[in-house]
Amino acid sequence: MSIVHNLGFPRIGAKRELKFWLESYWKGELPAEELLKNARGLREKHWLLQRGAGVDRVPVGDAALYDHVLDALVLVGALPKRFKLDAASLDLKGYFTLARGDATHHAMEMTKWFDTNYHYLVPEWRADTAFFANPARLVEQVREAKALGVTAKPVLVGPLTLLWLGKSKDGSQPLELIAKLAEAYVGVLEALAAEGVDWVQIDEPILALDLPAEWREAFAPVYAKLAEVRVKLLLATYFGSVAQHAALIAALPVAGVHLDLTRAPEQLDAFLPAWPENRVLSAGVVNGRNVWRTGLSAALVQLENARQKLGDKLWIAPSCSLLHSPIDVAQETELDVELKTWLAFAVQKLNELKLLKRGVVNGRGDIANELAASDFVQASRRNSPRVHRLEVATRLAKLAPNADRRDSAYPLRAKKQAAWLKLPLLPTTTIGSFPQTAEIRAARAAFKRGELSDADYKTAMQKEIALAVREQEALGIDVPVHGEAERNDMVEYFGEQMTGYLFTRHGWVQSYGSRCVKPPVIYGDVARPKAMTVEWSAYAQSLTDKPMKGMLTGPVTMLQWSFVRDDAPRSLVCKQLALALNDEVLDLETAGIRVIQIDEPALREGLPLKSADWDGYLAWAGEAFRLSSSGVDDATQIHTHMCYSEFNDILPAIAALDADVITIETSRSDMELLTAFGDFEYPNEIGPGVYDIHSPRIPAEEEIERLLTKALAVIPARRLWVNPDCGLKTRGWPEVKAALANMMTVTRNLREKLAATATA
């Protein structure tokens, strides 16, 4: 009989329990054994929840304490050599040292998981990287599930995807390691088979990419090796079409294949006609990446068509792991009733799968009422007057062809900006946020509960802004920021003040480690009714003679870090966001804020997985960014910030953004990314991050000086800025002040050296 299975479940808990346990452990407040006990209880709760929702095969091994890629490295004994840690004896302290660093080790590099906002830890490969099967922790979880009566389907990151996601640290080719890595996977599969496991899900999302020939050719021998183990493999692909690899996949000795039919429904036609008789096809018909209710009627048609060919070899699933979805919309007791009916989170998606299974197995008459209800919801959303705003459409239609262009080219703008800014060589700034202290969070929570008046809340936030300005003055920061005390999240804060957005109370998803975000939902046309940041930035400017930098989140990031409506092109939604933000930029300039940063950390994340689609995306994304900053005077300096992504292959598009200054994350990669900017001869000003703010360690002056010296070898001093990697909201004031003090000391010393060299 056709079954329902799940590819993965959110790890953090309905109340973000895992986040708070992790942070208590890191502070030394929660013993290691308590953290492990609590984490086990949470994953067992999630297994039982899924079984109760009708999932026939429940994923096991997806509940990482920090990151599933890191867990995969532990599973195959491939920890970065520089840490001198043994995977077989790895304890919690060592595990989190890999993820977060310590006094003597930089954390592993972090970057985006395909085109999501989840960050994974980047494997480090060397020619002598050793592998061994280390399945004890996974086997233990299989036993836990079995003891609960749960049918476990272990989930593994596939060997080729694991290699692809890593970086060579010695110039060797990662693919040369595949034979040794495959042997370790065989050992893991043998251990699972010995536990009675019959199905293992093995994720190879790189099949959605344009793979080089040598990587495509590596699949057959690797999977022939894995097939020697008496366990059935379900090859899972997601995030895009894998139709271009249909012949390759058809030839692999796997018992089943999962296809993402929400991102690429058309790919089913490339597989079904020649589908092997005894192979399972897992149809991902419920979107694991977004929050909209599934159109059950359309999904059921897909499944019925597939079942005519497959019979009981059809499995039903979400498109990808539900890691990227909030947990339960039932918690949203304060959400607008109509809008709530449009949404489905992880629990609701499982229920949709159960309904679809009933419709497939028993016939659509068995779910006739549910289909009618689904059709009604789809129609109400499609026709709702709350979705469409005539004034937004009219404004877009009237845009001039060159509306996204500044008046003058960068060289002329730079002269006008330098004339009034009068900044020293190697000007210093920060990325925007300062510590979100317990006092800030308490005041915000009290204000939201109605326990703090508008006036008292404003006073509390002004006090925090004054503190941030005072500390920056004391440190000697050249271009200060107001610290963003009033902001809960860099996207949510702005979305709350725009039309077309809805907000949840409990719609959290994991970004990395204990970092959770609550993406807003774009359900309709976007506009900005009134100024959002001007009052705070103007107040901060009144406290200093230095140029205060206004802080905004850019249109592409507002798009990428939201759950986006699926009834309009993303390019159209992004342009609406750009116009709303442009209103804010112009209001900031009018208020005297003439240095404005428009953050776009998600620009690379939004890049389509297929290279054929890149140019189109980069064209509209670049236009949206430029549109958001258009109309300002040449003397107004526009900054942007990007972090934790690879930009080497889109540098022309980044240059085309035409920001006066770009700040980027470079410390975890040891300035590797900056080299690409130098080779490209990036024309404008640039601030490479000189220390990693996601690690609790305070960088030594020697480390910062080494990175800045490397930067000076690539970027001329007249165009080089000095700043941390990212915002400082997650750090405490003592470490922020110590780290920035070291940054300023190094900067002053280098200024003196440069001045001495210039006069010699």
UniProtKB/TrEMBL annotation:
Sequence positions that bind L-homocysteine: I431, G432, S433, E484, D599
Domain Cobalamin-independent methionine synthase MetE N-terminal: 5-309
Enzyme class: transferase
GO biological process per UniProt: methylation
Source taxon at top rank: Bacteria
Signal peptide segment: none
Domain Cobalamin-independent methionine synthase MetE C-terminal/archaeal residue range list: 426-748
Cofactor binding note from Swiss-Prot or TrEMBL: Binds 1 zinc ion per subunit.
Keywords, sorted A to Z: Amino-acid biosynthesis, Metal-binding, Methionine biosynthesis, Methyltransferase, Repeat, Transferase, Zinc
Binding site for Zn(2+): H641, C643, E665, C726
Spans traversing the lipid bilayer: none
SUPFAM superfamilies named among the record's database cross-references: UROD/MetE-like
GO molecular function: 5-methyltetrahydropteroyltriglutamate-homocysteine S-methyltransferase activity
Listed EC numbers: 2.1.1.14
CDD domains with a match to the protein in the record: CIMS_C_terminal_like, CIMS_N_terminal_like
Coiled coil: none
Pathway in which this enzyme or protein is active: Amino-acid biosynthesis; L-methionine biosynthesis via de novo pathway; L-methionine from L-homocysteine (MetE route): step 1/1
Active-site residues (renumbered): H694
Assigned protein family: Belongs to the vitamin-B12 independent methionine synthase family.
PANTHER family linked: 5-METHYLTETRAHYDROPTEROYLTRIGLUTAMATE--HOMOCYSTEINE METHYLTRANSFERASE
Role this protein plays: Catalyzes the transfer of a methyl group from 5-methyltetrahydrofolate to homocysteine resulting in methionine formation.
Protein name as it appears in the record: 5-methyltetrahydropteroyltriglutamate--homocysteine methyltransferase
